[in-house]
Amino acid sequence: MSLKKGEIFTAPVESTAFKGKGVARHKGVAVFVSGTAPGDVAEMQVIRKKRRYVEARVLRLVEESEHRIEPVCRHANVCGGCTWQHLPYEKQLEYKEQHVRDHMERSGKLSPDLVRPILGCDQQLYYRNKMEYSFAMKRWLTEEEIRAEEYVDDTGFAAGLHAPGRFDKILNLSECHLQDPVSYQLLDFVRSYCITNDIPAFDTFKKEGFIRHLVIRNSFHTDDLMVNLVTYEDQPEVIGKLTESLLQEFPQITTVVNNINDQPNPTAVGRIEKVLYGPGFIIDKIGNLTFKIHANTFFQTNTQQAEKLYSVAREFCRGESIHHLMDLYCGVGTLSLYMADIVERVTGVEMVEPAIENARFNARENGITNAQFVTGDMKDTFNDAFLKEYGKPDCIITDPPRAGMHPSVVEKLCELAVNRLVYVSCNPSTMARDLEVLKSVYEVETIQPVDMFPQTYHIEAVAKLTRK
C-alpha cells in the first residue's frame, strides 16, 4: 500500500460507509474519515492502516459540501453520541437506506430493489427515553486545548458522556439534545451539587470515589420521570440529601433510585438497588400494551419508532392464521406480547434470565395468557429436543444482537423451513450475511429499513421471508 501512517493529503469525500464515516480515495486506496459529508474536500492525515483501506482524521476542510449544515449541539464534532448532526435529516435517511441496499446486494447477493423506502422518525431530536451519563475526575480535552502551547489541566469533576474510545475520560457536557431537555438540566444540577458539596466522582484507576453514573428515564406516553443515581458506595445520608435537593428543584420527578455498584465493572447496574422516592419504576406503552420499566430493565430507547418497527414486524407476520409463533432473542418480551393477539400461542426464547422474568411479568400485567417464555442460549437451545418440548412453530420472528445469528441457528432455521420468517435487525450487515444462507430455503420478499436513531449512523431493518 502506497499510503503511509502520518501521511497528509487532500481528497474529496465521495460517499458514506462504515460507522457513518466519509469515504474518499487517494492513490487508489479507500480512505475512511469521520466527521465528513459527501461533497467535502478535506485535508486529512492517515492515522491507521488496514489491509484494504486506511483511516484518517480531518485536519481542515478545504471546501465544504453543499449538504453540510451547522450542528445543533456544540459537542457534535467530538461527541460519540451524534455522528451525523452536520447532515440534514433527509440526507441521513438517504444514506441509511443506501447502506441497507448496499449490504443486501454485496453481502446478501440480493436485489437492492427488495428494500423499501426507509421509515423516518418524526422527532429528530429529544427522541431518546433513556440517557446514561458518567462522572469522572478527568475530562476530555478539546482539539483546541490539545493543540494549545500552554499546559491545560484535564483533572477536575466531569459529567457527561465517555469520549469516543476512552473509558477513563469524560466529555464534560454543556448541552445535549438526545433526550428531553430536563435530562441535561438534571445532569447539570447533579454536577454542580457534587462540586459544591465536595462529592467525588469515581476514579476508574484508583477504585475510589462516590458518584459513578446518572441514568435518566422518561416515558413517551405518560409524564413519568426516573432519576437513577449510581454510586460506588452506600452512603444513605449523602444520597438522601442529594435526593431531597433534586425533588425540590425538579418536582416533576416521579421516582428516584440508587444503584450501588461496588464492583470494578463500569456498568450502571448496581449489585444493590434502593428505591429512594416513588414506586421505583416508570410506566410506558407500545401499542395497547403497558410496561413497567425499572431502572435496569431493557426497553426500546425510542418508543415512538419502536411502535413503527413492531408494526412492520406485525404486518410481515400476517397472512394465513398462525398457530404457533416463536420469538427468538425475545428480550423482555415486548415484541412477543405485541404479536400475541394475532396468534394462537407465542413462545419467546432469551438467554438472559432477568429479561425472561420481566417478560413473564409483562405478560401478567397485560393479561396475556397465550405467551410463554424460555431461558436459553439460542445456539445451544434451538435444537430438536427444544422443538419437541415446545412444538414446531409455523412462524418465527428473530431479533438477534448486532453480531447476527450463530451459524447453527441459521442452519436450524433452514432445516425447519417454517411458513414465514421475520428477521428484525439492528445491523443490516450481519442480517445480509444471514439472509445469503437463508435464501436457499426461503424467498426474501421485502426489507423495510426503520430509522430508530436520528443523528447517528445506526439503522434497523425488518425482512420478510416465506418458505419456497
Under the CATH scheme, the architecture of the largest domain is 3-Layer(aba) Sandwich
Uncertain runs with pLDDT below 50, 5 residues or more? none
Largest sheet: number of strands, sense, barrel closure: 7 strands, mixed
- Overall pLDDT: 92
Q: Care to count the β-strands?
A: 21
Through-space gap between termini: 45 Å
Helix content bin? 25-40%
Secondary structure class reads alpha/beta
- Give the CATH H-level superfamily of the largest domain: Vaccinia Virus protein VP39
Number of helical runs?
Answer: 11
CATH class of the largest domain, named Alpha Beta
Instruction: Report the portion of residues in β strands.
Output: 25-35%
Our Rg estimate from Cα atoms comes to: 24 Å
CATH fold topology of the largest domain: Rossmann fold
Q: Label the overall shape.
A: globular
Whole-number total of structural domains? 3
Strand order across the biggest sheet?
8-7-6-9-10-11-12
Short summary of the structure?
This protein has 468 residues and is of the alpha/beta class. The protein is built from eleven helices and 21 strands. Strands 8-7-6-9-10-11-12 form a seven-stranded mixed sheet, with helices on one face.
